[in-house]
Amino acid sequence: MQQKLDFLRQSLRNLRMTGSVAPSSRFLCRRIADKIDPEKTGVVVELGPGDGVITDYILKRLHPDGRLLVFEINDTFVAKIKTRFDDPRLMLIHDSAAHMGRHFEKMGIEKVDYIVSGIPFVMLDEALSEAIIQECRHWLATGGLFVQFHYSPLLLKVYRRIFGNARV
Question: Of 124, 122, 166, which Cα lies nearest the Cα of 146?
Fold first, then answer.
């Protein structure tokens, strides 16, 4: 219960960054995590994990030799993720998803297998949203999967233009 109240507090302070007033349900978390092949040992990226509710499900599904790179800009959520998880496969990056390429290059990552995004693109500046989505497409491996969840179909045309296809 405390976790839900903390999330609500952060949402009310930063609705444009969180895009939601409640953490994702276990049903949504499971549905997203099920997209990840537990046999793959590659790199999974999570953008805008909030308090880490989906992160937890991803880690449960992630191969023991896989890596999960998490980008979060909210200081409070960064602190929560640091204290919530003690998993060597997880790397928390306190930076904007717009800068993901800079971090990937430093780590020697050429492509990623999955990108899970909870970024509320419809609430961001259009140019920033477009730039982040283009970055995602650039770094996604051939056959990789971009999973975006939000509560509006407004950007479906953008996803189809950038990725070539999109399923709801």
Answer: 166
SS percent in the chain: helix, strand, coil, step 5: 45, 15, 35
Alpha helices in 14-163, H assignment, sequence order: 15-18, 26-33, 53-61, 75-84, 100-107, 126-139, 156-163
Q: Is the dihedral of CA 127, 129, 135, 138 positive or negative?
A: negative
CA gap 45, 104 in Å, rounded: 10
pLDDT tens digits, 53-66: 999 999 999 999 99
| Residues 6+ away with beta carbon under 8 Å from 15 | 21, 123
Whole-prediction pTM value? Answer: 0.82
pLDDT tens for each residue of 35-81: 999 998 899 999 999 989 999 999 999 999 999 999 999 999 999 99
The number of residues in the chain equals: 168
Please name which of 64, 63, 79, 125 lies closest in space to residue 98, comparing C-alpha atoms: 125
The answer for residues whose C-beta is within 8 angstroms of residue 156's C-beta and 6 or more apart is 166, 168
17 φ/ψ angles, rounded to the nearest 5 degrees: -90, -35
